Amino acid sequence: MSVIPDNEVAAAQVPAAHNTLRILSYLAGRPAPVAASAIARELELPRSTVYHLLTTLAAHGFVLHMKEDRRWGLGTSAFELAGGYARQQPLARIGRPLVAALSDRLGESTHLAVMSGGDVLYIVEERAPRRQALVTDVGVRLPAHLTASGRAMLAALPREQVRALYPSASAFPDRTGRGPRKPSELRELLRTVRERGYATEDSEVADGLRSVGAVVRDHAGWPVAAVAVTWAGGELDERILADAVIETASALESRLKR
């Protein structure tokens, strides 16, 4: 008597749920959005089934349809799930000693953040001795486009994803009167981040404070977090700080991929 594996039984009982998860997993492993026909071919599914499931996923924000390219990619709701997993210990646990070591090395406050929709959510903060309290305490959310951490992650997202998060000027909340206020300004800022390899902000979250951030990617190249350092004034060398932050982000990437 043969025994049918549990995963095959589940797939047979709830085929729509099974295929939906297969589509999400497939998209998560792609470096860029893909056509529905490619999804159907790779997963050996009827095109009608794929289109139906993609439409349902898009309605709930788990995928995005890039109409001009006729391609599909992950949506903000899928990104929320990734951030939710990260917040349930693994990323914070692995990242905390690295972020603490970075703070000791630089003598400044450091933190680790993940994306949550159009915000960053701080999951680790190491405050340096005799440094002022920051607004980046654990559990705090800030607009991603204003923070170095958020900009580092946004610059690593597909451009279509960024357009979905920031479709118009109304999607740009303000804190200090500084920072991008429309999509074209954000696109130019993120272009600079990609060219330079790290992100910065200067008094855009809090007056007198500056930050440098670097992205942390998973095995598929997806930005799962960012490491950043924050300091007061302009007496420190930004490039030296950036090199240290990038080194820490790279070390965290390596540990996540083990």
Keyphrases for this structure?
258 residues, alpha+beta, 6-stranded antiparallel beta sheet, two-stranded antiparallel sheet, 10 helices, disordered N terminus
What does this structure look like?
With about 260 residues, the chain is of the alpha+beta class. It has helices at about 5-15, 15-30, 35-45, 45-60, 75-85, 90-105, 150-155, 160-165, 185-195, 240-255, and strands at about 65, 70-75, 110-115, 120-125, 140-145, 200, 210-215, 225-230. The strands form 2 sheets. The protein has a 6-stranded antiparallel beta sheet, with helices on both faces. Strand 6 (about 200) and strand 7 form a beta hairpin. Helix 3 packs across helix 4. The longest helix has 19 residues, at about 240-255.
Short account of what is shown:
With 258 residues, this protein is an alpha+beta fold. 46% of the residues lie in helices and 19% in strands.
List the SSEs and their pairings:
Elements: H1 6-13, H2 15-28, H3 36-43, H4 47-59, E1 63-66, E2 71-74, H5 76-87, H6 90-106, E3 109-116, E4 119-126, E5 141-143, H7 148-154, H8 159-165, H9 183-196, E6 199-202, E7 209-217, E8 223-232, H10 238-256
Antiparallel strand pairs: 1-2, 3-4, 3-8, 4-5, 6-7, 7-8
